[in-house]
Design brief:
This protein is α+β, with helices and mostly antiparallel strands. It has 2 domains: about 5-180 and about 300-385, 3-Layer(aba) Sandwich (Aminopeptidase), CATH 3.40.630; about 185-295, 2-Layer Sandwich (Alpha-Beta Plaits). It is built from 9 helices and 15 strands. The strands form 4 sheets. Strands 1-2-4-3-5-15-6 form a 7-stranded mixed beta sheet, with helices on both faces. Strands 10-12-8-13 form a 4-stranded antiparallel beta sheet, with helices on one face. A two-stranded antiparallel sheet has the order 7-14. Helix 3 links the parallel strand 3 (about 70-75) and strand 4. The radius of gyration is 24 Å and the shape is elongated. About 50% of the residues are buried. The mean pLDDT is about 95.
């Protein structure tokens, strides 16, 4: 590995520790934004901020937005999670009930490391590189907000790449799938309305609890019998709520859950079949059903050509041995909205499992992976402009 990446990673570590100690929730990344802006300005960038959200966009070289018609973009997310950290580290969260349990502090530090590489390498590129620091990934609102405020324009982004720290891979290893990386996330709220009554006289009531039980059991066949076993899908009920005491049949039952899919066609099919099942079960029990879907994000689907380019770029700076195969995750990622607009690729950066998995109160981004993250992005930049020099 180029010694420049190792030198930069030491500075990235200090930045990450500062960010880790002061985590901020989705949409409230004000201090994080200010820290990113200060770092970028110290390197000679002219970062752009927004009134509508806490995102930051910066071009290298600075002031190049009015000239070239297009650019290459790299993205990192910045928000933390509502979780109490359990750590003895000197840089542990100083904010009660908030921590960087998904490694976004590491993602931000890596992209700031790329900013250092761009400023210090002495290289020039035929078109600008755009760095996108995104808020609110955990809510699924960050990427759409940035797109709405023009982050993919001025100059127009022609390709976009991002990474996520991944504990299931060895530290510094990378996995760049050709297509599916993370799942579409569709959350639902279902209200079953019956007729309340005495628990000893069920014949006079219309019991939504029994209907809910039938629906929960029957819904499992949507994945096990209605979709191919070769297609990944998950249907989970995360909340079931009804009644307040032991001898009253309640008027309503509330169910909340999530549907996860990798195939857009299967996604549409399962949503349609689930709604049909809900209506049939409700009708069979003499009750009504009110269904609401909330799309958290579509599936994160790489462009195969961009994935191949990214792997070639990683080989340039880290060698063939760093690449691994890893299965897709049924978790969600709003980088998918960028990939719906622009060809690109999303990839895993291995962290090792020493500090547990993501969204864990003992998780911490592995500092030993920072250099590999910077080098991976640098290799992608080099490979991209070598392949499209004009």
């Amino acid at each position: 590995m180029d010694p420049l990446f190792l030198s930069i990673s030491a500075e990235c570590r200090e930045v990450r520790h500062r960010l880790h100690a002061r985590p901020e929730l989705s949409g409230a990344e004000f201090a994080t934004r200010d820290a990113v802006v200060a770092e970028l300005r110290s390197l000679g960038f002219a970062p752009q901020t927004f009134e509508a959200h806490t995102g930051v966009v910066a071009l290298w070289p600075p002031g190049s937005g009015a000239g070239p018609a297009s650019c290459l973009a790299l993205r990192a997310d910045m928000d933390a999670l509502p979780l109490q950290e359990e750590s003895a580290d000197a840089w542990k969260s100083q904010v009660a009930g908030v921590m960087h349990a998904c490694g976004h502090d590491g993602h931000t530090a890596v992209l700031l490391g790329v900013a250092r590489w761009l400023a210090r390498s002495g290289r020039t590129w035929p078109r600008p590189v755009k760095l996108i620091f995104q808020p609110a990934e955990e809510t699924g609102l960050g990427a759409p907000g940035l797109i709405e405020t023009g982050a993919l324009e001025n100059p127009r982004v022609e390709a976009v790449f991002a990474l996520h720290g991944w504990p299931e891979l060895p530290a510094g290893a990378l996995s760049i799938p050709d297509r599916a990386v993370m799942a579409a996330v569709d959350n639902f709220t279902l209200t079953l309305r019956g007729r309340g009554g005495h628990g000893a006289m069920p014949q006079l009531a219309r019991d939504p609890v029994v209907a809910a039980a039938a629906l929960i059991l029957n819904a499992q066949t949507l994945v096990s019998r209605k979709s191919s076993p070769l297609e990944a899908a998950v249907l989970t009920f995360g909340q079931v709520s009804a009644g307040r005491t032991h001898n009253v049949i309640p008027e309503t039952a509330l169910l909340r859950g999530t549907l996860r899919t990798l195939n857009p066609a299967l996604r549409a099919e399962l949503m349609r079949d689930f709604e049909s099942m809900v209506n049939h079960v409700a009708g069979a029990h003499g009750i009504t059903a009110e269904m609401e879907w909330v799309e958290a994000c579509p599936a994160t689907l790489n462009d195969p050509a961009m994935a191949a380019l990214a792997r070639a770029g990683v080989r340039r700076t880290l060698g063939e041995g760093c690449l691994r195969d890893a299965p897709p995750s049924m978790g969600g990622e709003d980088f998918s909205y960028f990939l719906q607009k622009v060809p690109g690729a999303y990839f895993w950066l291995g962290l090792g499992m020493e500090r547990g998995g993501l969204h864990n109160p003992r998780f911490d981004f592995n500092d030993e992976a920072l250099a590999a993250g910077v080098a991976a992005f640098a290799g992608i930049v080099e490979e991209y402009f070598e392949r499209s020099p004009a």
